[in-house]
Write a structure and sequence with these properties.
- The structure is a single chain.
- By secondary structure, this protein is an alpha/beta fold.
- The protein has a single domain, classed as Alpha-Beta Barrel (TIM Barrel), CATH 3.20.20.
- Helix content is 38%, strand content 19%.
- It contains 12 helices and 12 strands.
- The strands form 2 sheets. Strands 1-4-5-8-9-10-11-12 form an 8-stranded parallel barrel, surrounded by 9 helices. A two-stranded antiparallel sheet has the order 6-7.
- Helix 5 packs parallel to helix 6.
- The site of ligand PBG has 10 residues, from loops.
- Ligand PBG binds next to loops.
Amino acid sequence: MNFPVTRLRRLRRTEAMRSLVRETRLHPGALIYPLFLCPGEGVRKAISSMPGCFNLSLDEAMKEAESCAALGIGGLLLFGLPAEKDEQATGAWADDGIVQTALRAFKANRKLDSLLQIADVCLCEYTSHGHCGVVVRDGNHYEIENDSSVALLAKTAASLAAAGADIVAPSDMMDGRVAAMREALDGIGREQTAIMSYASKFSSAFYGPFREAADSAPQFGDRRSYQMDGANLREAMREIELDVAEGADMLLMKPAMPYLDVIRAARERFDLPMGAYQVSGEFSMLHAAFERGWLEPERAMMESLVSIRRAGADFIVTYFAKDAARLL
Ligand code: PBG
C-alpha cells in the first residue's frame, strides 16, 4: 500500500517512537578500549595525533583500566612499548615482557573482573625494524619470513596466555598463525584461552597515528607483503575461511569505516562472533574535524559506531570506547 496510507514518518515523530523501532543499538559491554603500555612509573605521555590517548606506565594503566571497568566497557586490547627492541622481538614473548607484566597485575585486581583482557599478538612493536615478522636479508633484498615469524608469534601467544590473557588477538597476518597459536596454547594447558583473529586486515594508511602511539613504524619498506590489498573483498573471505578452519574463535575486521562492505559480506557468510576495529586514523580524522568545529563530536562519534554495528560487527574496538560508554 502506498501513500497516503503508508507514511513512514509516523514512526519517526518522537524519540519514544524512534527508540521503539531502532534496529541497531550500542552497548558499553560491546566496546573494547585499546591501551598502550610503556615502561616507567607515573608516565602518562599524550599521543599527539590521538587526542585523549596516552602511553601509560603500569600504575597509570591500572587507573585507566579501573575507570573502563566502572563504565561497563567489555574489554581492553593491550599493546606494549618495550624498553628495548631487537631482531627476534624478544620483548614480545619474554615472561617479564611489558604486556605479560601488566596482565598479571590486572588479573590480580578484583575490580577488573568484568573486563576481558585481550592481548594483541604481533611483533612490530618489539622488532628493531618495525616489521610484524622476522626479516631475512639478502643483499639489498629483504623478505618477511613467514614460518619463522609464526613460531615466534605462537610463542608470544602462549606467554600472554600464561600471564592471564583471556583472549589473544593475532594482528600480524602471517599464514598459518592461528593453527600454530591454538597448538601452542593447548600445549601449555590453556585450551580455554580464546583466539580473536584479525582475519581480515588490510594494508591501510589509516594505521598512521597508531605507529606513533605504538612506536611501530617499519624502518624500511611497507607491510604490503603480509597485510591485504585494500581492493580485495574476495581475498578477505578466503583469509577468514582459513582462520576459521585453523580454529579461530572470533573474527576481527580492520579497518572499519572504509571497509564496511567487507564487514557486511563477512557477516552474511560466517557465523562466528565478529568485531571490527575502528582504527587510529578513523579516530584521528574525526577528532581533527571536531577541533575545527566542522563536526558535532557526540553525534558524529555515535553515528560512526552505529554504522559499524549496522554493517554487522557484534563488537567494536575503538578509541572512543570511554567517551561512548559515558553517553550510553
Ligand atoms: C600491529 C597492529 C597495528 C594496528 C593494530 N595492531 C598496526 C599495523 O598493522 O601497522 C593498528 C591499529 C590502529 O591503527 O589503531 N600490527
